[in-house]
Design goal:
Amino acid/polyamine transporter I, 18 helices, 69% helix, 1% strand, globular, disordered N terminus, amino-acid transport, Putative amino acid transporter, transmembrane domain-containing protein, membrane, transmembrane helix
Length: 436
């Protein structure tokens, strides 16, 4: 079948997206895409950025943020170019066009492992509301600080209420563009966190209580290999590739997606560096791998305790609003993997399939999050494996495969460099973490 005219392209895509669904879904705006992409990036990883500044130093930290953002822009441009040239409208389908069923299966497995792991981590971090125990130390949550230790301020009960009354209504929305308002609120809450952290840093600077900043790495405390352990944090932070296709599919003009991505990258770079700089300035070498833990220490003044509570509460709500956007692509890939029969209606139009899959995923992530108090090592492992594959290796591989004959020599050189960098840095990071 020819694909060089609009009518033929429509004819190919129509059986996968019925007219009624296609008609109602092509109303996404650039602003909505920016909010959803930015929310995907500004997730749990931002709390680890200050700790990377402690290892790298301020200047190398800024350089790495910019470099990872530029590489992300290149790989997304690869994906969008090949999606426009091919017939598939999903990430797995795009890779499947180049590498067949095994390539498509590899993408689905990576998306499921990555998003499921990230969603579990999100719920675990939300225990900032109800406290946890780490390394023999008890960290009281906001609810326990306010009301004391009761059964209804426990992790299991507090997370259950959060899942039922905040997360569940949002994950039941059937179009990703419907999340644009909650994504905008999520970004606003992240900015509130940045403003409060910077204000506290300026106040500490005024009082002469700020910590000395490390401009470059201190090799008396870290070695060269330790620097590579910070890369998965940034890769995870910019790893929104799994949501590129769902967000693009709902735009009025799919070509606007690249501009939405670039605006989102600029927003995320500013937020990452601001949080990294001011967090490191405020806490110095005492900064924890999760900066939120630094805010649960008691303050000597009511104003200090109030600011600490605002920081923790705003970030908890921010993560609760990020949860649905990550759940969207997870649900879509599981459905594509399990219910691959093309005679079935799309997931959004099959209420029984949609509701049962949504409830099952939310229940599973809740139970695992309650059972496991801390999986930060798993989160870092994702940044060195599946997220690297989804963000860099798969997009570069389709450029080298070049099934549509549109890759230039420059594209292929960049793709080779990306694969070498991704595999090399990830291997070193994994080895260093295991050795440590």
């Amino acid at each position: 079948m020819f694909v060089d005219s609009e009518s033929n392209i429509t004819h190919v895509v129509a059986p996968l997206l019925p007219q009624e669904e296609d008609h109602c879904s092509q109303h996404g705006s650039i602003s909505g895409a920016v909010f959803n992409v930015s929310t995907t990036m500004i997730g749990a990883g931002i709390m680890s950025i200050p700790a990377t500044m402690k290892v790298l130093g301020i200047i190398p930290g800024l350089v790495v943020i910019v470099l990872v953002a530029l590489i992300t822009d290149i790989t997304v441009e690869f994906m969008l170019r090949y999606t426009s040239s091919g017939k598939s409208i999903t990430y797995a389908g795009m890779v499947g066009e180049s590498f067949g069923p095994l390539g498509s299966l590899a993408v689905k497995i990576c998306v499921i492992i990555t998003n499921l792991g990230v969603l579990i981590v999100y719920l675990i971090i939300l225990d900032v509301l109800c406290g946890n125990e780490s390394n023999g130390m008890t960290h009281l949550g906001i609810l326990q600080d306010w009301f004391g230790i009761h059964w209804w301020t426990s992790r299991a009960f507090a997370l259950l209420i959060l899942a039922l009354f905040i997360i569940l209504p949002l994950v039941m929305l059937r179009r990703v563009d419907s999340l644009r308002y909650t994504s905008a609120i999520s970004i606003l809450l992240a900015l509130v966190f940045v403003v409060i952290s910077s204000s506290m840093s300026f106040y500490a600077l005024w009082c002469g209580k700020t910590q000395s900043l490390r401009i470059l790495p201190d090799f008396s405390k870290v070695n060269v290999l330790d620097l590579f352990t910070t890369v998965p944090i940034f890769v995870t932070g910019f790893g929104f590739h799994v949501n590129v296709h769902p967000i693009r599919a709902e735009l009025r003009k799919p070509g606007d997606m690249i501009w939405a991505v670039r605006i989102s990258l600029i927003i995320s770079m500013v937020v990452y560096f601001a949080i990294g700089f001011f967090g490191y300035l405020l806490f110095g070498d005492s900064i924890m791998a999760d900066m939120l833990v630094n805010f649960d220490h008691s303050s000597n003044t009511p104003a200090g305790r109030f600011l600490n509570d605002i920081v923790r509460l705003s970030y908890a709500l921010h993560l609760a609003l990020v949860f649905p956007i990550m759940s969207y692509s997870l649900r879509a890939n599981i459905d594509e993997l399990v219910f691959s029969n093309k005679n079935r209606p799309p997931l959004a139009l099959d209420s029984t399939r949609f509701v049962s899959l949504t409830l099952s995923l939310l229940a599973f992530t809740y139970l695992v999050a309650v059972a496991i108090p801390n999986i930060w090592d798993f989160y870092q492992f994702l940044g060195s494996t599946t997220i690297v594959c989804l963000s860099f290796i798969f997009p570069a591989s389709i450029i080298l495969r070049d099934m549509h004959g549109i890759s230039t020599a420059k594209d292929k050189v960049m793709a080779i460099v990306l694969i070498v960098l991704a595999v090399g840095t990830s291997a070193i990071a994994i080895w260093t973490n295991l050795y440590s």
